[in-house]
Amino acid sequence: MPVLLIHPPAAKPCEPPPGLARLAGALAGAGITCRVWDAGLEGLLYLLRLPLPAQDTWTRRAVKNRQTNLAALRSPAIFDNSDRYSRTVKDISRVLASHAALHGAELTLADYSDNGLSPVCSRDLERAAEQPESNLFYHYFSLRLREMLARNMPRVIGFSINFLSQALTAWAMMGFLRREGCRSAIVLGGGLITSWLRRPGLPQLADGLADHLAAGPGEALLLRLAGCSEACADACLPDYSGFPLDEYFSPGRILPFSAAAGCYWAACSFCPEQAEGNPYRPLPIAAAGAQLRELVRLHKPRLLHLVDNALSPAFLKSMIENPPGAAWYGFARVTPELQDEGFCRQLRESGCVMLQLGLESGDDGVLAQLGKGITAAQSARALSALHRAGIGTYGYLLFGTPSETGESARRTLDFTAANSRYIDFLNLAVFNMPVNAADAASLATGAFYDGDLALYTGFEHPHGWGRSQVRRFLDREFKRHPAIAPILRRDPPFFTSNHAPFFIRP
Length: 506
Ligand code: SF4
Known about the structure:
alpha/beta
């Protein structure tokens, strides 16, 4: 086995990781044997099987029902009853949290943190590597790694790290590998590593542990390290055959797919993609469509998750012309096409069940300052057209941006209430200023939180509309509005947008 690709714990266990599938496809395309290991999924399944000392009534019930709950979550019927769904998901997460508490850690279905160590502090990552046995997942990953390496020592081991919740365990796994005398070349890649590498003033990272750190697509580097001189072919089909597709926590297979890296718009001032300068690299549209149809033919997914930052209008049109053959959802910008009900109906016929829309604000002045290229009226038209066409809408709002005031935030509240019948789900975020954002240069900035790997910086809000004012407004006014509160209550706990499409009724 020349290459082992690892997706470390912990990450939401609802679908296989698309980055590893893309890498596996590129390696397979070059004739290189590779093994993928979704340790994130397996780590949680392992914890769910372990005995747990009897505790309070809720935990005892959750432990007793854990396998039944897991089976229920993998069945479509539970999505007919949102209360039962919530109870089931919270019970599963309760078991995980109880295991973690015994190790002085916190774990849910969506997050992992170690009480003593911070993933944004390089010294704490080093500590995680020095003491791998302190990691919650140690018993599981040490067994599995020993077993895999005994069978076949890979030439290259790649870690795909996309979330902070994965970093401490990735470092613990690397520390374990080096301690065991593993001489494979270790490569770190994924979204989080890319963000760190594009961050100014990056400290030494994974020194003595990793041999290579990859920003952006890692195919070319992996191919070279695996001994293949061919340039990476973008046209390679992502390879999902090595993932346990029926073991994810979802009611049917979800296949994620990326038609483009970066963003075709790339103009929003608050956006990390923009701040990091990630280039827009779309697959040729015909190739993306052909790959989607082939993946559907091979794996028969219940749902395709298009993970692009924003699906381009040209790509959406291609989905109408050549539907992929399975239901799908993803992020899109509010464009003239989406304000046209006829177009939205065609999208629905192509299989689109839900679109995620970065609405951000209901105030035109704020939207202009953010560089969104949309107005509140256009957003309202798109929400209405999508709703009438039978496509679910998942809206994203952003509060506390430098140009927002209390008055403009209240305009967002009015906008949301006025369009509430067209909004199925809502995500509310308080603005975090990326360390390398252009806006940061003109504002008084300070530490956002401790850690030399922090991706955000604190800033003094120019209108006094700081995080505490924003939070108070959200808690006391926005979330309590009678038209908005029911939308927020609908949000699937932990899995949020990943499971939201299963609740959409055409
Ligand atoms: S559309 Fe989305 S991904 Fe693109 S620049 Fe704006 S916020 Fe970023």
